[in-house]
Design brief:
heterodimer, A: alpha+beta, B: Tetrahydropterin Synthase, Chain A, 5-stranded mixed beta sheet, 4 helices
Chain lengths: 145, 146
Amino acid sequence: MVLLTRRIEFSASHVYHNPAFSPEENRRVFGKCNNPHGHGHNYTLEVTVAGEPDPATGMVLDLKDLKAILEREVMQRMDHRFLNKEVPELAGKIPTCENIARVIWDLLEPKITQGKLHRVRLYETPDLFADCYRDGAGASNEAGR
Amino acid sequence: MADSVKVELGRRYRFAASHRLHNARFSEAENDRIYGKCNNPYGHGHNYILEVSVSGPVDPATGMIANLSDLDGFVEREVLEPFDHQSLNEDVAAFRKTVPTTENLCMEIYQRLKVFPKAKLERVRVQETTNNSFEYAGENSEGQRL
């Protein structure tokens, strides 16, 4: 099995606010991320696909195809958007790194038909990231470093 | 049916510390042969990068596996405070008798962090230099390693 990783970057804004919490609770739980007008990040997304290289092409999947899937599913949906309001898949959810990574996983998994989606790693900052993978597959992934 | 897609939260921390790789049971020549420059008598230091991964259910009310302020506070207290700007050999009890290689450092940090009460510790990764890094996920972790 070979792992192939593609990296893309997008920029988006968000705010953490749970309407079921009091203003004090929102402040306590979410801190600065609760500032009312939101704030933004440059997100880095690493998408890892696992598979056997096709003997004829030497490819797990055609990078052009992966690039097109990421453009359609992630960039067009999230790049330069306000995640809370403009991404329907995040409606009613707090757009944390964990939740965004999971939404991206759910968007990509059915679209990757050559090879198998192995891991989604989303960096919100260089020091904070979330990993998504099928239980048992393992998030440890040298290819994604 | 239980959701089989797992989500982990990863967080990176930094600390700087010195160490010397030396085993008192080895002869001088043996220490020199095995550890090379790392055996130089007064030690040397690194800017370590520590990567901590935790897992657990994402709380629907907060969207979080664990609140970062809890994780940061815990790692600060258990690892950064006792290790940062210290001599690992002299200032960390665990390394009085164990050689502070980054393998051993990884395992020591794992032991300290595995009791984090708010989420499950999956693994720690310690980068000693940009070219060397080490990972530990506890015993029986083969299923989670590639």
